[in-house]
DNA sequence: TAGGGTTAGGAAATCGATTTCCTTTTCACT
DNA sequence: AGTGAAAAGGAAATCGATTTCCTAACCCTA
């Protein structure tokens, strides 16, 4: 009875393929997995392949993983899913992974639920061969990965003394934005950041002050604002800064397009024209930048490349045991749109 | 030597725990997996638990899955990751899954790469116990799931004759938006949809004409536009419609906030005031709606509930073999903000 | 045709956990 | 103390694939 049962109801196993082709399980395995440690006669190969096709055989990943101690799966931990930068990274990383015959699983690192799916089941349970980490707000994750010596690569994040990270250059890009504005004649620059205790905020602030110093200017505490809660807050923060400052800014760098947009709304609400009376630039591009009149100038980073390289570097490390490096992608581009004016 | 080797370098297995506790593997298994088919003396239990804790033992998911024929993992296939509705669905589904001790893996159904990770490795290779499907643009996926009799649930999508889907009511919501506008005195309504060949576009168009008919009005082909490529196109489409129509619309329904935003820009570019000369409402809310002055009125759907219920229904079906139902969440809310005016 | 080297393919161990089936121990009761 | 039932725990099969080790068949040459 098991014979009928197997053919009809259940999913075929390798044994079924072997039986159908009239060969041993081992031979079927050799044919299916391709990696020929042994030569197989062409005619036998075809018999097995035909049988597999007819039965609709698909190898069982779980069994394979158990035996091979390899899952050919990668995980990526992301803090938020609807951030366009992460979206791009995920997409390109998945594409690169698939090209090398790996799968990529995405797992959200929920703030209220740090005990993520990926972490609990996959990493601890050896469900993935490696992990891309795009958030370090929970340092416990990286610690644990290191402790269990699971290959992992920090993506768009870096950590003091940590081997294996790949980043874009927020610092230099921000510094160059500042230089760009100064070259256009701006002298009073404001900076409205996202949460300053987070990685991106810190790097951008660092770049901001670095850029100013390169131009022989000194940062003015009064012109530096922090915005934790998005658009509406950005408008308020801007107004507060503008009104309070002795000499108001002629240009503002916003951490991202949401903040830039909010700031523009704030500026307009107190009668300021953009870009004539206030130049605005976003330190991170997104589709939102184009949804304004004028469109918002913004810095574009090679996030697609970042995701691709990250996946490939991780896979290399898994397959060749190669050490992971710390890579910094220096490329970026200031997309000049209409929100910045020249004072000259 | 293997003894030392195991303790030092490698990850502990159940056998190591058993050895450390001085019991048999089977006993250790019974303690660790909790499900007591057999009673275990409290003292023995503690010994095993202590040993496991000391060794840092974590069960190997792959081996477990192989033996149990269950992975306690769910997959979700999403068409795009940076759409706020999908973001909400994913987040709440993941949360619900974790609460029931399942993992949720997200996989992007890339258009140019329909051969997704989830599909290839997980579904075919029995890597997940069930799948949430949020896109039907590739009907092959659903076909294949059905053919392999893998539990799956359509989320925010439905298919003729398909058992197992959970949706929000785009049709009724859109119809009620139309009624709402008509009650405010609007008679000439325009509708700018996203791609009309896709699910959401079809449902909204259906609701739009249904709403009009309920109010005794007839849809005017001239006032129906399609926008496939986002903001800038929406502005153009709107202008074209407005200029071309004999009697111009006093209100417009946009499929989503990006289109609504683009339309508003288009309207302003031809000198129209919003909401005084043109009312605008989005049939789908997103943070972008609040990034306007005036803020854009929009329809809010219970996507969080959708994701939660979807995960739970799928898990129920997996665990109890219960049939999956077709559920429609009727709740929705029209968030009135400033972009709609009354003509009375 | 015997001998040596290849080529082709099979039997069985293995990966790590679960579970069935069985044996031993414990305990209550007479 | 002896008996039977219940409790506690162990040995081994199992899940589905890979791989090592081995044997049989084949081919060529001397």
Task: Describe the overall structure.
The structure is a homodimer of 344-residue chains. The first copy, chain A, is of the alpha/beta class. The first copy, chain A, has 3 domains: 58 residues, lambda repressor-like DNA-binding domains (434 Repressor (Amino-terminal Domain), Orthogonal Bundle), CATH 1.10.260; 127 residues, Rossmann fold (3-Layer(aba) Sandwich), CATH 3.40.50.2300; 132 residues, Response regulator (Rossmann fold, 3-Layer(aba) Sandwich). In chain A, 44% of the residues lie in helices and 15% in strands. Chain A has 13 helices and 12 strands. In chain A, α6 links the parallel β1 and β2. At the A-B interface, α5, α6, β2, α7 and α12 of A face α5, α6, β2, α7 and α12 of B. Chain B binds a DNA duplex (30 and 30 nucleotides) through α3 and α5. Chains A, B: InterPro entries: HTH_LacI, LacI/GalR-like_sensor, Lambda_DNA-bd_dom_sf, Peripla_BP_I. Chains A, B: Keywords: DNA-binding, Repressor, Transcription, Transcription regulation. Chains A, B: This is LacI family transcriptional regulator.
CATH superfamily of the largest domain in chain A: Response regulator
Work out the helix count of chain A: 13
Low-confidence runs of at least 5 consecutive residues of chain A: 1-9
- Which oligomeric state applies? homodimer
Q: Name the shape of chain A in a single word.
A: elongated
Q: Which fold does the CATH topology of the largest domain in chain A refer to?
A: Rossmann fold
Helix/strand-derived category of chain A reads alpha/beta
Q: Using only CA atoms, what is the Rg of chain A?
A: 27 Å
Query: Element order, helices and strands of chain A?
Result: HHHHHEHEHEHEEHEHEHEHEEHEE
Kindly provide the name of the CATH class of the largest domain in chain A.
Answer: Alpha Beta
Approximate helicity band of chain A: 40-55%
Alpha carbon gap, first and last residue of chain A: 89 Å
Name given to the CATH architecture of the largest domain in chain A: 3-Layer(aba) Sandwich
Largest sheet of chain A: 6 strands, parallel
Number of strands of chain A: 12
Largest interface, counted by CB within 8 Å of the partner chain's CB: A-B, 60 and 60 residues
Strand order of the largest sheet of chain A: 2-1-3-4-5-11
- Which strand-content bin applies to the residues of chain A? 5-15%
Protein name (chains A, B): LacI family transcriptional regulator
InterPro entries (chains A, B): HTH_LacI, LacI/GalR-like_sensor, Lambda_DNA-bd_dom_sf, Peripla_BP_I
Pfam family, one (chains A, B): Peripla_BP_3
Organism (chains A, B): Bosea robiniae
């Amino acid at each position: 009875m098991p014979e009928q049962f197997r053919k009809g109801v259940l999913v075929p196993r390798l044994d079924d393929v072997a039986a159908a082709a009239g060969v041993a399980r081992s031979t079927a395995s050799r044919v299916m997995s391709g990696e020929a440690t042994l030569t197989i006669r062409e005619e036998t190969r075809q018999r097995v392949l035909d049988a597999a096709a007819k039965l609709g055989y698909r190898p069982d990943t779980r069994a394979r993983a158990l035996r091979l101690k390899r899952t050919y799966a990668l995980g990526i931990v992301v803090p938020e899913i609807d951030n366009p930068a992460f979206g791009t990274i995920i997409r390109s990383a998945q594409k690169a992974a698939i090209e090398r015959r790996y799968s990529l699983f995405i797992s959200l690192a929920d703030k209220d639920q740090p005990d993520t799916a990926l972490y609990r089941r996959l990493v601890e349970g050896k469900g993935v061969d490696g992990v891309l980490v795009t958030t370090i707000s929970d340092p416990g994750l990286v610690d644990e990965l290191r402790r269990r010596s699971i290959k992992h690569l920090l993506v768009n994040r870096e950590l003091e003394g940590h081997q294996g990270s790949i980043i874009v250059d927020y610092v230099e890009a921000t510094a160059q934005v500042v230089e760009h504005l100064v070259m256009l004649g701006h002298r009073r620059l404001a900076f409205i950041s996202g949460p300053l205790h987070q990685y991106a905020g810190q790097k951008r602030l660092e770049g901001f002050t670095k850029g100013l110093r390169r131009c022989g200017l000194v940062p003015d505490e009064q012109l530096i604002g922090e915005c934790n809660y998005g658009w509406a807050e950005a408008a308020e923060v801007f107004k507060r800064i503008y009104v309070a400052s002795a000499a108001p800014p002629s240009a503002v760098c916003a951490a991202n397009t949401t903040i830039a947009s909010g700031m523009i709304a704030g500026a307009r609400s107190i009668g300021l024209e953009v870009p004539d009376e206030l130049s605005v630039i976003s330190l991170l591009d997104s589709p939102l930048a184009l949804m304004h009149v004028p469109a918002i100038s913004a810095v574009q980073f090679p996030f697609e490349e970042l995701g691709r390289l990250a996946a490939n570097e991780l896979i290399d490390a898994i397959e060749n045991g190669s050490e992971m490096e710390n890579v910094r992608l220096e490329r970026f581009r200031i997309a000049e749109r209409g929100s910045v004016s020249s004072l000259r």
